[in-house]
Amino acid sequence: MLERYFDFSRQKTSLSRESLAGLTTFLTMAYIMFVNPSILSTTGMDETGLATVTILVAAISSIAMGVFGKAPIAMAPGMGLNAFFAFTLVQTQQIPWETALGMVFLAGVAFLLLGGLGLREKIIEAIPASQIAAIGAGIGFFLLFIGLKNLGLVVDDPATLVRLGTFTPGVLIGLFTLLLSMWLMVKKQPAAILVGILAGTILGLVSGEVSWPERIFSPQFNLDQVAFKLDIMGALKWEYLGPIFALFFVDMFDTIGTLVAVNQEAGRVKKDGTIPGLGRMLQVDALATMLSGLLGTSPTTSYIESATGVAAGGKTGFSAVVCGLLFLLGLLVIPLIMMVPGFATAPALIIVGMLMLKPLQKIKFDRYEESFPAILTVAIMVFSFQIATGIAFGFISWGLLAIFTGKSKKIKPIMYLVILLSLLSLIM
């Protein structure tokens, strides 16, 4: 039945090869089970509940993508989106986390509806490539900075804002973890980040910086502490229009970029450039974001780490199903996940942030009408600690420069709406 549904023979693959690909993808992105609860718990949300929800959402979404999207693409709460949720919405803008979850749900609804109306593709076509690159790179710098801060390598300073921290045992273990993960990445080991996290945790146990949990297996998931706590009515305010748009926008571009890249790697792109089933994949992603808001986590998105599974031979959605089933096993060892310290997960933030800087190569720095808005986007994101504000500044400055330099014809009609929404978000 599996052979017939996923069409292994036509795709020139097999059950064993797809299973290996699913395992490879899981090992590459399993770090999210440790990192996502660590980030979101800074909002005051229950960390055990967050670990449970992270695993459930990753499992359900990945299986759904495999079964309905029929693509070798796994899903989980997105890096960058979780930082936006925790540090920008809740901590900086002082939005209650329940309301922020309502905003996540509404962003998923917008993603779903705009796809049905055909507006999603028009928005993508209207936004300049330089700004798309700047948003990805800006989120990368944002994650990198948070990783350095969580590691303790960078600390607050009243005179210079930040300075080098003290080399405590935890910082030294974190630095070792970072170097180990990077060495494994150079060696092209798919589980590099996960191995680094586990090594950092073991060193923490040996040094006494980490305590062994009272039990390894526990039926207590604390799901009721975060699930279905979203406040949709509280999120339906004009002043939240900008952040909701930013959530939708970042999720949309993260998803589309990943889907295109992984499908190209898998050889699923036709000669005319179209991707079979892309609409279904995007709809699954939108529903996964809505599920995230309902169960209590930041938006879920498609993971670029799925490319490692494709490289291992994955071509069908069954590899995503296998990855989702492996995530479910994490529910058996929630106490072990809770044991992982911040100095072991911080290097993962640094590495993922570093990998997200690649889009900077696409920015033409000798064209100031492109490079200035792009640099402003990145700088405002990092230094204001607000991703949505950086996006808004970038769009507005790009539009103004295009008008002032006599290149207003480059601005497509729907882009004027995007710029107006960005301006309104700053005003409000």
Q: What is the structural class? A: mainly alpha
Shape: globular
Strand content: under 5%
State the low-pLDDT regions, or none: none
Please estimate the helix content: 55-70%
Largest sheet: 2 strands, antiparallel
Q: What labels describe this entry?
A:
two-stranded antiparallel ribbon, 428 residues
Could you please describe the fold and organization of this structure?
The structure is a single chain. The protein has 428 residues and is mainly α. It has helices at residues 2-6, 15-29, 32-40, 47-69, 81-92, 97-117, 119-126, 129-151, 169-186, 192-207, 232-235, 241-265, 278-295, 306-311, 318-329, 334-339, 342-355, 368-384, 387-404, 413-427; strands spanning 75-77, 154-157, 161-164, 300-302. The strands form two sheets. Strands 1-4 form a two-stranded antiparallel ribbon. A two-stranded antiparallel ribbon has the order 2-3. β2 (154-157) and β3 (161-164) form a beta hairpin. The model has no long low-confidence stretch (mean pLDDT 87).
Write the layout of secondary structure elements.
Blueprint: H1 2-6, H2 15-29, H3 32-40, H4 47-69, E1 75-77, H5 81-92, H6 97-117, H7 119-126, H8 129-151, E2 154-157, E3 161-164, H9 169-186, H10 192-207, H11 232-235, H12 241-265, H13 278-295, E4 300-302, H14 306-311, H15 318-329, H16 334-339, H17 342-355, H18 368-384, H19 387-404, H20 413-427
Antiparallel strand pairs: 1-4, 2-3
Care to give the gist of this entry?
This protein is mainly α. Helices cover 67% and strands 3% of the residues. The protein has a two-stranded antiparallel sheet. The chain has a two-stranded antiparallel sheet with strand order 2-3.
